[in-house]
Design brief:
CATH superfamily of the domain at 70-218: VirB8 protein
Structural class: alpha+beta
CATH topology of the domain at 70-218: Nuclear Transport Factor 2, Chain: A
Distance between the termini: 86 Å
Strand content: 25-35%
Radius of gyration: 30 Å
């Protein structure tokens, strides 16, 4: 009897080893299958429901945090440049600068401040923009060129008109042809808009795209990085 029991144990041991090995192989295959499914799901992101302020609801494709639609980038650049370089006696240059500078990267604000003052008569700057106006007329904005993850470069061709002095009906046109570097943001830089000021509300709406202007260069430069 003892011999039969030992023989049975000896016969069961290889079966147990084979069964355990088979179970491990099955577990590995299941893990590989789950990993492939997760990769497939991550590449095919589900659609999201977006409710607009006018009551409409639309379905949009989910995108990675650093991805932006080309038209969103072009609209951001066009409206930001228009707001930044358009001012009047009621909205003087300093007021415009304080609001729009929040749409710029910190290390490029000084460069943009110089761009804003170029072409403005010194007496107009000294008087805080009194009896003067500046208007930016955008002629063309190119399609964004992706240069890195969350970074794009595009060109803007425009004319800047400055009306100053007693005869301010005729503006002096200055070409504004630049390359603009755009960077995506993880979070919105402006948290609470000043609802009492329509201009600040417009800045807040632009910042909802979570983009910032990282650099400005002459249009003839090869790179604006």
């Amino acid at each position: 009897m003892l011999f039969n029991q030992k023989n049975k144990r000896t016969n069961i041991l290889p079966v147990f080893v084979v069964a355990t090995f088979g179970l491990h192989v099955l577990t590995i295959l299941l893990l590989m299958f789950h990993q492939s499914m997760l990769k497939r799901l991550s590449s095919n992101l589900p659609q999201s429901l977006v409710q607009l302020v006018n009551g409409r609801a639309i379905t949009v494709d989910s995108q990675e945090n650093l991805e932006r639609n080309p038209e969103t980038i072009r609209r951001f650049v066009g409206e930001t440049m228009t707001l930044m370089f358009t001012w009047s006696e009621k909205q003087p240059p300093q007021t415009i600068w304080q609001a729009t500078s929040e749409l710029l990267s910190g290390d490029v604000r000084r460069k943009f401040e110089v761009e804003m003052t170029q072409g403005i008569p010194k007496n107009v700057l000294a008087n805080g923009g009194r009896n003067a106006e500046s208007v930016l007329l955008v002629r063309r904005i190119s399609q964004p060129e992706k240069i890195a993850d969350g970074q794009w470069q595009l060109e803007i061709v425009a004319n800047r008109l400055i009306f100053a002095g007693y005869n301010n009906k005729v503006g002096e046109a200055t070409p504004f042809n630049k390359k603009i570097l755009i960077r995506a943001l993880d979070t919105q830089a402006i948290s609470i808009p000043n609802v009492q000021n329509p201009f600040h509300t417009a800045i807040y709406r632009l910042n909802e795209a979570r983009l910032e202007i990282a650099n400005i260069c002459d249009i003839k430069e090869k790179s604006c990085s």
